[in-house]
């Protein structure tokens, strides 16, 4: 019986070290997601300057809370897992049943939590496009960007660069003009980016094409984040399940070996 205990003990010790590395990985991914610059400005930039007036950030769509929550969850799981693996190592080396039981219970709780987070992220990933199809907050922000770009086109180099890039790429012109207003809100002066094949009196204003492009970019960004979170959560949850099984097996073997010695 003693040889089985020793074998499982060292397997659990090595497995705990691997779990410790996984905890460090969770912590690192969480910190990366928190510090990643793209979490501030993730939509394609149409200006060289970091002008918040023409940038769409998470704060404009309600997505900042999601990104920050994900990063904090990973950081919290990483820290807790590092502490729990220390308990497991102590229990395995000392062959302490109490520590092993605490370790197994902690792994079970973490496993259930990770599977829950992974399931939530998987569902959110599949529905993320629908969330931005009718996002009124985002629509208002994109409309405001276009209106500001048109109104300050001839007074601001940043606004001029923004509207020229939008109009050339999306093949649109100006904003939704008011009744009786000519040339898509520009008055009597049409920008060169609206000339020729790009502009016609029946051409679409930039409001809707710009909103669609922004919502698509946001969806791609959020899908990437949810994919990372679900993959990490499910794989780590499976690993914690194996660790829990090893801890229970070791505790049972220690108890049986103790009974044999006593008898």
From TrEMBL:
Cystines in this chain? 172-206, 173-194
Please give the start and end residues of each transmembrane region.
12-33, 70-93, 100-123, 228-254
User: What Pfam families does its record include?
Assistant: Tetraspanin
Keywords recorded for this protein, A-Z = Disulfide bond, Membrane, Transmembrane, Transmembrane helix
The entry's localization annotation reads: Membrane
Record has Transferase as a keyword:
no
User: Organism's domain of life?
Assistant: Eukaryota
What GO CC annotations are associated with the protein? plasma membrane
What is this entry's stated membrane topology?
Multi-pass membrane protein
Name the PANTHER family for this protein. Answer: RE08073P-RELATED, TETRASPANIN
Family assignment from sequence similarity: Belongs to the tetraspanin (TM4SF) family.
Q: What is this protein called?
A: Tetraspanin
Q: Which organism is it from?
A: Biomphalaria pfeifferi (Bloodfluke planorb)
């Amino acid at each position: 019986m003693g040889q089985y205990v020793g074998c499982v003990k060292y397997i659990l010790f090595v497995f705990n070290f691997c779990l410790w590395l996984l905890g460090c990985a969770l912590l690192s991914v969480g910190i990366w997601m928190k510090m990643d610059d793209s979490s501030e400005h993730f939509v394609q930039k149409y200006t060289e300057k970091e002008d918040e007036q023409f940038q769409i950030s998470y704060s404009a769509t309600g997505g900042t809370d999601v990104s920050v929550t994900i990063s904090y969850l990973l950081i919290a799981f990483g820290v807790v897992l590092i502490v729990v693996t220390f308990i497991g190592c102590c229990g395995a080396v000392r062959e302490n049943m109490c520590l092993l039981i605490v370790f197994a219970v902690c792994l079970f709780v973490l496993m259930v939590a990770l599977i829950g987070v992974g399931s939530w992220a998987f569902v959110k990933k599949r529905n993320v496009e629908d969330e931005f199809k009718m996002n009124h907050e985002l629509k208002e922000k994109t409309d405001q960007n276009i209106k500001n770009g048109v109104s300050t086109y001839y007074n601001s180099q940043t606004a001029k660069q923004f509207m020229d890039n939008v109009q050339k790429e999306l093949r649109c012109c100006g904003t939704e003009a008011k009744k009786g207003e000519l040339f898509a809100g520009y008055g009597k002066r049409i920008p060169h980016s609206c000339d020729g094949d790009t502009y016609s009196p029946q051409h679409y204003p930039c409001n809707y094409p710009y909103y669609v492009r922004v919502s698509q970019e946001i969806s791609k960004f959020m899908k990437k984040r949810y994919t990372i979170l679900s993959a990490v959560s499910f794989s780590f949850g499976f690993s914690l399940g194996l660790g829990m099984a090893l801890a229970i097996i070791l505790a049972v073997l220690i108890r049986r070996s103790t009974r044999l010695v006593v008898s």
